[in-house]
Amino acid sequence: MDIIIANGSSEPIYEQIARQIKGAIMAGELAEGDPLPSIRALANDLRISVITTKRAYAELEEAGFIDTVQGKGSFVAGGNLELLREERLRQVETHLTRAATEAAAAGIGPADLHAMLDLLLEED
């Protein structure tokens, strides 16, 4: 798992880490029970503070994406299929909201927007 930090981004580093790990879990690149790098190892690899990495892991644990076992490390949480589905639904809703806003700004009505979506779904 490669994590890339964009120093010029307005997004805090801990959020970049959490987002990329969450994305890997949602994409199936990390499966239930897979170990994550230790907080110190990840901090060293990324050349960032241990506190920053710890905050990213804490956010992931709070959201239910990872479990941390004292003395053993952090692992991809099990039984979070419903959580992953909800996260994906939220992402789709965000994209659809953005598309609806853009369509309205371009003068595209609901019927035309539905037709566009239907065409896109047929292609897949």
TrEMBL record:
Keywords in alphabetical order: DNA-binding, Transcription, Transcription regulation
Domain of life: Bacteria
Gene3D superfamilies: Winged helix-like DNA-binding domain superfamily/Winged helix DNA-binding domain (1.10.10.10)
Domain HTH gntR-type: 11-79
CDD domains named in the record: WHTH_GntR
Residues in coiled coil: none
Record-level Gene Ontology MF annotations: DNA binding; DNA-binding transcription factor activity
Protein name stated in the entry: HTH gntR-type domain-containing protein
